[in-house]
Design brief:
Elements: E1 3-12, H1 18-29, E2 32-37, E3 43-49, H2 51-63, E4 69-78, E5 87-90
Parallel strand pairs: 2-5
Antiparallel strand pairs: 1-3, 1-4, 2-3
Helix pairs in contact: 1-2
């Protein structure tokens, strides 16, 4: 069953390669969706896939790339909408 989640990541997550890290983690899990920087310094990711893959993706986001310092992640369930076939970095 396909599930969808939104992740709002807080901390030192811009300027450290976080979006590229998230794209790689999503690709390894076979997830679809996107990641983008928010104007307030946070990062937003939306991902669709199976529940176990979303859980592993969330754990990866908590770790982040070297140089990142993830303070908190707000997770919201979303209705699956059929995201793009790959996980994208949005500007």
């Amino acid at each position: 069953m396909i599930r969808a989640r939104q992740f709002i990541i807080e901390g030192r997550v811009q300027g450290v390669g976080f979006r590229f890290f998230a794209r790689g983690a999503a690709a390894r899990e076979g997830l679809r969706g996107f990641v983008r920087n928010l104007p307030d310094g946070r990062v937003e990711a939306q991902a669709e896939g199976d529940l176990a893959a979303l859980d592993r993706f969330e754990r990866a986001l908590h770790q982040g790339p070297p140089g990142a310092d993830v303070v908190a992640i707000a997770v919201s369930e979303l209705p699956p909408i059929g995201q793009t076939p790959v996980f994208q970095i949005r500007v």
